[in-house]
Amino acid sequence: MTSSLDGPRTTLVIGAGGRHGGTGSHVVRRLREHNRAVRVLVRTDDERAQHLRVLGAQIVVGDLLDRRTLDAAVQDADTVYFTYPVAPGIVQAAANLASAIRRAGTTPRLVVMSMAVSASDSPSGLGRAQWAAEEVLSWAGLEPTILRIKALFYENIVLLHAGSIRRTGGFANSFGDAAVPWISGLDAADLAVAALTDPIRYPRGATFYPQGAAVHSHADIAALVGAETGTPVRYTHIPAGQWQRELEDLAHKGTESSVNRAMAQHISTIGAVFSQLPSAPPSDTTALTEAIGRTPQTFTDFMREHRHHFVATPGR
Fold first, then answer.
1. Which residue in 35, 134, 291, 313 is deepest, having the highest Cβ count within 10 Å?
2. Nearest 5 degrees, angle CA 232-CA 302-CA 28?
3. Dihedrals φ, ψ of 183, to 5°?
């Protein structure tokens, strides 16, 4: 992976406190490993911010949905990493970020972590919003480098299904028998670091569609989880509408803080789309290995690190 990390440049990382995928915190750690100056925008100076501070990052408290709080974050940053939760608000966030950068009078390289379903006609409401946010950044003259990852994150299984696996020994969703491309948040973060540090390979204004590390159906995922935990795990296909309602119920109860109604519509709809595909989308481990400079994580690798999420413990 080509790197240009020497010198007194500062990278602003937006989204480092996120829990889903966690690419922002991984980006901070990778950049700090190479002594890159890193500034992190956080909404709350909590334990997650303290962890980033320990890594050597400068912490700036602000809110992408409150334009008044962003000036200090963007000041003198020469590169910016922008990722947003799988939640409503990204268009306003992008507009506020663009406004702050334009007021600062700087021209940082902007790398956006996006999704393959980012499109004006996406069946996902969040996919359409992601596309609109990218359009706003482009209209503002920021020429974003966009990474539309063509894979689901392994972390989705923890977020959406670990609780059910612990309670019932199984999980259900709308993907059916479809083989799905997958990637770890760690590998997606290293793609972002490559884009932030290699402007020749990842030029301004370009959109990339990196492929995943592996292809698995959810039945395959169930078998891999069961192999690691030592307990069989069942997978069941259910209609998209049913899964959406179940996720909305989780959001309403606050059972899982990262699940929201927009996410419920997004992932259940994407599952239904995948279930109808005539063949599996491709993955390209060779290209991903070349881009991140190492062998990508397999789902088994991921499970060995996250096994505790899937195993019931007394009182849990």
1. 291
2. 155
3. -150, 150
Query: What distance in Å separates the CA atoms of residue 246 and residue 273, rounded to the nearest whole number?
Result: 18
Cβ-based neighbours of 211, under 8 Å, separated by 6 or more: 150, 151, 181, 281, 282, 283, 284, 287, 288
Segment (H or E) for 90: helix 90-104
In the structure, how many helices (H) and strands (E) does the chain have?
12, 12
Residue 60 forms beta bridges with which residues?
41
The pTM of the full predicted model, rounded to 2 decimals, is: 0.92
Instruction: Please tell me the distance from the alpha carbon of residue 44 to that of residue 50, in angstroms, as a whole number.
Output: 10
Q: Is the pLDDT of residue 312 over 90?
A: no
Contact 107, 204 (CB under 8 A): no
Which CB contacts under 8 angstroms, 24+ apart, belong to 61-68? 64/14, 64/89, 64/92, 64/93, 64/96, 64/97, 65/89, 65/92, 65/93, 65/96, 66/96, 67/96, 67/99, 67/100
Distance CA 118, CA 41 (A): 24
